[in-house]
Design a protein that fits this description.
The chain is mainly alpha-helical. The chain has one domain. 88% of the residues lie in helices and 0% in strands. The chain contains 3 helices and no strands.
Amino acid sequence: MSLMQRLSAFLRSPRGQQLVDRGRRELAKPENQAKLKQLANRLSSRRR
């Protein structure tokens, strides 16, 4: 079984769904969105 197949199977499992839901809840928080925006800015400035 390839890595992608195992990952897909995990994401369809109940535990995988719990983690996806938790991730969505965390990403909905404004403080986490600000942290992600800062990280994206830092990474994009390195490329220049």
